[in-house]
Amino acid sequence: MAKNDARRAVLGDAGIALLAHSGARGLTHRAVDREAGVPLGTASNYFRSRDALIAGIFERIGERLAPSAVELAERASRSPGRELFAEYIRDIVRRLSAESDVTRALFELRLDSARRPDLAQVLAPWLRAGFEADVAFNAAAGLPGGRLEVALFHYAIDGLMLDLLTSPVDPDLDPDEAIDALVARILPEE
Fold this sequence. Notes:
Arc Repressor Mutant, subunit A, 2 domains
């Protein structure tokens, strides 16, 4: 496997763009090469199979959606509680909204995994690892709620993002207000 991390990132970004704009069926090594503006065969050098390409795209999605270390450090210095938990959730929604192609690509892969068991085998461990990391982070940060509450927020954020990225049920809905309402209803009083 090639080791140029910058080139891998460019190829991963090209795969994300293809998924977001053309869907999973448009994701081929050649299409990634064309989208990235690199010589044909480059994506195959970095990702030997479609599964490897998809795994590389998952890696890149994680990099692009990760919170900044500065923001995490600032929040870590604050007292844990419902308001801080809501702030983390609002930040997740802001990052997902700001990286709308990344979010669309992730939704596309999730939908395609329902049709393709081989993709589900790649996606499921990635999703579950992210969920487990969120549960561990929540506990380590002393934030309210446990495993069930973190799962409920995953479900709520996925639904909110699907709504924001498609045809909203309520176009006037303020996502921050929705998040505050979710936190108030899902997390017990302090």
